[in-house]
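Backbone shape codes
____________________
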Amino acid sequence: MIRLKIVTPMETLVDTETPIVTLPGRKGRFQVLNDHAPLLSSLERGSIVYSDGGAEKEVRISSGFVKVRDNEVFAMVEQ
């Protein structure tokens, strides 16, 4: 499982565990699975999509950055 945390300058939007995360990168959408290689990426307008209890959920963003490391995805976003 991946620990997903999505925050804005004002609040924490998501803090959960999920098997997969899809993010809107500047060079296209990409997915993060368990044991993904470390990376830093900027994010563009779109949706961060993740699975929560079998249901697909999404958070709409206008921009941001994401850090992936040690099965943790930490996204700092603007909505």
Remarks:
- The chain has a mean pLDDT of 96.
